[in-house]
Each structure stands twice: as C-alpha cells, then as structure tokens.
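User: Sequence for Glutamate ABC transporter substrate-binding protein below. Tokens please.
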Amino acid sequence: MRGKRVRLVVAVAAALALTACGGGGGNQLSGGGTEVKVDTGAHFEPGTTMDSLQKQGTVRVGVKIDQPLFGLKGLDGQMQGFDVETAKIVAGRLGIPPERIQWVETPSKTREEVLEQGKVDMVVATYTINDERKKRISFAGPYYEAGQDLMVKSDDTRITGPQSLRPTGAKVCSVIGSTPAEQIRKYVDESNLVLFDVYSKCADALRTGQVQAVTTDNVILLGLVQQSGGQFKMVEKPFTREPYGIGIRKGDVKFCEFIDHALTQAAQDGSYARAWQATAGKVSRQTPQLPKLDPCG
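Assistant: Structure tokens for Glutamate ABC transporter substrate-binding protein:
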C-alpha cells in the first residue's frame, strides 16, 4: 500500500505457459479456511523454484498479521484473510497443504528486504505493484486490484461515488499527509475536507454525523465496515488503481509464470471467488474478477 499511509491496526485472462505438468491426484484440505486443492501429483522442471519447494514440502510466505480481511493473525494464532487464502491456493498447486506453510510476519517496510535476503519464498501482503519495487524484486499477478473508495452510513443513498460529493455538499474525512487526502480534493471543496491523524477518528466522525463520508483504500475501509456493527457500508466505486501482486525473488520468470497459471486456474474453477467470499466478501457486496495478469520477465 502507499507509503504515506497511517495503518489501521484493527481491524487473479488467459493461462500463461507453465513449467509444471499437472499430475493425477489432488486432496481437499481446509487448513482452517476455504477448502484448498492440493496437487499431490504435480511434477516440476528440475532446478526450478517450484521443484525445490515441492521437495522441501514447505513454503515460507510473507504476510501481514494486522490487516483485517486480508492478512490477520486471529486470537487462536491462525492466519486469516484474502491474502492468506491466495497464498494457500498457490501452495496447493505446489503440492503443499496449508498446514505446511510457514507464515512470516512481513510489514510493508520489509517486503523487498525479506525477499532479497531469502527469508521468504513469496510475499502476499497487500503489495502494490510499482516500478520502484520492480527494481529490487519481481511480481506475479496482480491477483487483486485495490483502489481508493468511500465509506458512508448504511442508510445513505445520496453518496454514490466521488462525483456525488460536491453536489450533495458532503463533508469527507481522511488522514493528514495521506495520498487519499490529496486525491479527494478533486471532488470536494476545501472547506468540506476534514483531516485527522488516524482513520478511527474519521469513523467516529462519520458515526456522529460530523462528516458524511470517509475515504482511503478499500482494504482499510472494509476493515472499518467490519468493525462498525452494520452502521457503515462501502460505496464500492473505486476511483484509483492499486494492483496487488505476489512478490518473488527478482528475475524468477518460471516461478512467476507458475503463480500466474495457478491464479488463472483458481479463477476458472471458482476457488478464487470462494477465497474472497470467505474473507473480504463477508463485508464487500461484490466479488472481484481476477485482474488482467502482467507479463512475467
């Protein structure tokens, strides 16, 4: 996610060439989330990352542990969220069941570092694909496209997107110094922009009627909606683009192609949609489609 962001702690298209040829058997193992297909008969080209991971029987995945609905460590110690389920899908295509995944806490500022140092095999952590990061690591995907959105009260029918803000005279809240606070200035008068230091204060202001909308990335808003007890909803009309990719070691084209194929298969067999519905889909009214995948290499 964007660098200038106060984090709220509460709260995959045509198939690409694949170096693995699918084997025969597959298991269905829940692993504490959605049922995941584990391809026990997969075979991979010797010397590839896939071959190495399959022989190890485990994969290390960098994730966030404080991002509700995407990457969150529950009170029971189990990982949950859409990023987590996406990682399980990829691991399953490697023949690795969920219980053999090693989850590694990976905050935003360390994502490139852990890949470069070989501490993880991939990072699935609300990881926006951009040119600066591509100088250090490679990306598979994207598997999800986030974007700035609006959160309003559940009974609000007047605010239907950013273009409706100025005509309705709505006051909008965001966070000081954040990119969303700058982006929203195109749609509201300066006098109707309210800024706080954290998004929880924006949620309080919406609850008490001091503002009529809160704006930031939809993944943060989903967490706030979840915490609102039904008081808030998301407009679900994103007006910026943030493609989330799976980070891997720089230049590992075959692993990128493998992951992209796994994501494509998941979109085709419904496991991508099920992963969403079991996590962020509990709050979001819409199930996203797998975005167009970027070329590997």
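Residues 27-145+243-282 form a domain with the D-Maltodextrin-Binding Protein; domain 2 fold (CATH 3.40.190.10).
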